[in-house]
Amino acid sequence: MKQLAIIGMGPRGLYALESLLIELSRANTTIEIHVYDATSHPGTGNVWDRSQPDSNWINITERALVGIEARSEIRYNNHIIKAFPSYLDWCHFSQSKNEPDSFPPRNKMGRYLNERFQSLEKVLTQFKSFKCIKAEVTHINVKHQKLQVLTHAHQLQYDDVLLTVGHQSTTPSQQLKEWQSHIAAYNDLTLFKATYPIYQFKALQNTTNTTIGIRGFGLAMIDVMRYLTINNFGNFKVINPNTFETVYYKRKVQNITLVPFSLDGLPLVPKPLNQCIDEWYAPTHQELDVFKSEIEAVSKCTQEKDNINFLTHAIATIASRVFIDLQDKSISHTLSEIEIKSLIINWLDDENFSHNLIQDQNISTYQLIQTYIDMALGVIPVSLDYCIGQVWRHCQPTLYRAFSHAKVNETIIEKVIALDERSKRYSYGPPIESMQQVLALVDAQILNLDFVSHPDIKVSHEGWTLKNYKNESINCSIMINSVLDAPKLLDVDTPLIKNLLQNDVIQPIHSKLGIETTTDGYVKTPESKSKVHIAVLGRLAKGSVIGVDAILECFGPRIKKWAKAYVTKRTTN
């Protein structure tokens, strides 16, 4: 009987296990399956941990989770695994087009994922051929064409391994290394190297007379901000349910100041209020079909490319049509669709490109956030950049499918990923309510945005002194790093990945990207090594695939493709 280890049981691992069981049942084949997961709630991973606080919100609209479909009944090994509902059916979701979109806490998704896993586990644990091992895998060794999986307490052998481990910590940046070295000499300074788990900040929630620096100005910063300020001293209150206008009311004085900062200081851009407004930016089915064909034509071609015009022009074709159709909903202009397309290409090629149709980023951060909130509400004319960002979000799933495992050179892959990352300020934006909370904390003189754009930073025995372009300064005795590590394989510092790299079992597709894999998810082994049967799905394969951070991609066709390939190629020989 073939033996398979699945390492990591987050959403991808869960869907991989389901897809595998479906394919095995179709082939009327049984294998030995061992699942390794160190979390308390298999199926969730750390991101969707069901025990995390309600202040950690999903940043995708609940209605968009329609992509997490129901699991059909599975007949495996003479047993029946009952069907499991889709996410929307599970939570009895109902919403009209004009109702504001809902963004539930991440622990709600965690409950769904964990229950979905448990519905599998209660049947699978009846088989001797299935084990769920609660342990962290530290090494995978290749020995006599077999894979030895090691934890602190186990050493077992398998024919195949599937890695679905999600986010891995990386070597600290030079700045963080310097901070760590410096504060080692001072007992009164505190540095948190990562944002999650968010409960690590519990002792800070009700501290007083404290100034806390937050490195980063993205989604993780908002999680930190919300967790620290929903406390015994105050809370948020929505005073206008139509706009989510919010105030922070203080029960008593805390004297806490939060000081976020980033390299560019640009805020996240909220998603549209509801489905009705969101549909302003939706490409037609025909436009998406053409877009898919154009991207696939390049991704499957081995002819050398030296730019990503194929992508920027394809996006610009759709976004220019959408912007023209907005008419009185957008900033007034007399330009033709061709002229708008040219502006879009210029902006995609150069983030500093300016035009009166593109929102001026040089106004105050507070006013910039308010302006984008008003665009998201549909109460002021929409700027061209806001339009492009929302169109990009609608095109992302098609892009991710069409461009993964592209045959173009690594530099082009890196450029496509870089542009997609740049778009995420808009396309992965938070709900309006999150940005209203940011403004509420500024109004309450808790969140200080005066140092948000690339401050000069010096560390002393007194803490981190931030100085802005006005030569104003502020001192922080606590620093929180909320910047999420990029999935750069060569920088990952977890024992498992370092072990695989050192043994030349895996290699990056590019020095700045992740593991190189085939279209069915298997690692491309260096030619000097014997072939090993390790598959990788998810964030560590960034570069071979794109779109690795989206929850919907965890339930996508890539996982099904791996399961089908595994059963077809590995259980029949």
Automatic annotation (TrEMBL):
Residues 5-168 form the FAD-dependent urate hydroxylase HpyO/Asp monooxygenase CreE-like FAD/NAD(P)-binding domain. InterPro entries: FAD/NAD-bd_sf, HpyO/CreE_NAD-binding, L-asp_N-monooxygenase_NS-form. Signal peptide: none annotated. PANTHER family: BLR0577 PROTEIN. This is FAD-NAD(P)-binding.
